[in-house]
């Protein structure tokens, strides 16, 4: 069973990597259905959840979409710059921000389980 799950996760990660923009779970599903018509939505959702939990993909909460992780930041902070015009996403390592955020949220005894920051705006190609 684990081999099948790992293979499925790898396939989905390949689909995410092949896209220039974030993909919803149903877009991933449609892409996979080309070669496997019987694949079901729960299969894709489970694999995306596992990839997100492992830090191999990020869920963009504001878009309800996914992108592959492109940085190595196990104990860091993902900062994702999302262009509202073309949909491109750049990933940055916000590790220097993490202690400041921990201090800020620690004032109310909040304990973060996941660290991700989304910033919406315009990329340099679309800013003109």
Please characterize this protein's 3D structure.
- The protein contains 4 helices and 5 strands.
- It is α+β, with helices and mostly antiparallel strands.
- The protein has 2 domains: 2-68, Winged helix-like DNA-binding domain superfamily/Winged helix DNA-binding domain (Arc Repressor Mutant, subunit A), CATH 1.10.10; 78-121, Dna Ligase, domain 1 (2-Layer Sandwich).
- The strands form 2 sheets. Strands 4-3-5 form a 3-stranded mixed β-sheet, with no helix packed on it.
- Strand 1 (57-60) and strand 2 (65-68) form a beta hairpin.
- The longest helix has 17 residues, at 2-18.
- The N and C termini lie far apart (50 Å).
- The model has no long low-confidence stretch (mean pLDDT 91).
Write the layout of secondary structure elements.
Layout: H1 2-18, H2 25-33, H3 41-54, E1 57-60, E2 65-68, E3 78-83, E4 89-93, H4 98-106, E5 116-121
Helix pairs in contact: 1-3, 2-3
Strand content: 15-25%
Q: Name the CATH architecture of the largest domain.
A: Orthogonal Bundle
Low-confidence runs of at least 5 consecutive residues: none
* Structure classification: alpha+beta
The helix count comes to 4
Rg is 16 Å
Main sheet: strands, sense, barrel: 3 strands, mixed
Q: Please tally the β strands and state the result.
A: 5
Tell me the CATH topology of the largest domain: Arc Repressor Mutant, subunit A
CATH superfamily of the largest domain: Winged helix-like DNA-binding domain superfamily/Winged helix DNA-binding domain
Q: Tell me the series of helices and strands, N- to C-terminal.
A: HHHEEEEHE
User: What is the typical, i.e. mean, pLDDT?
Assistant: 91
Q: Order the strands across the largest sheet as they lie in space.
A: 4-3-5
Residues in helix, %: 25-40%
Shape annotation: globular
Query: What's the number of structural domains?
Result: 2
Distance between the termini: 50 Å
Main CATH class of the largest domain: Mainly Alpha
């Amino acid at each position: 069973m684990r081999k099948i799950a790992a293979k499925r996760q790898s396939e989905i990660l390949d689909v995410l990597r092949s896209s220039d923009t974030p993909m919803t779970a149903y877009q991933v599903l449609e892409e996979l259905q080309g070669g496997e018509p019987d694949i079901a939505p729960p299969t894709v959702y489970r694999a995306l959840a596992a990839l997100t939990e492992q830090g191999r993909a990020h869920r963009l909460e504001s878009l309800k979409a996914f992108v592959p992780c492109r940085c190595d930041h196990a104990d860091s902070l993902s900062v994702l710059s999302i262009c509202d015009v073309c949909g491109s996403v750049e990933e940055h390592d916000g590790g220097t921000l993490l202690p400041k955020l921990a201090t800020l949220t620690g004032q109310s005894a909040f304990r973060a389980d996941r660290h991700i920051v989304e910033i919406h705006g315009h990329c340099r190609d679309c800013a003109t």
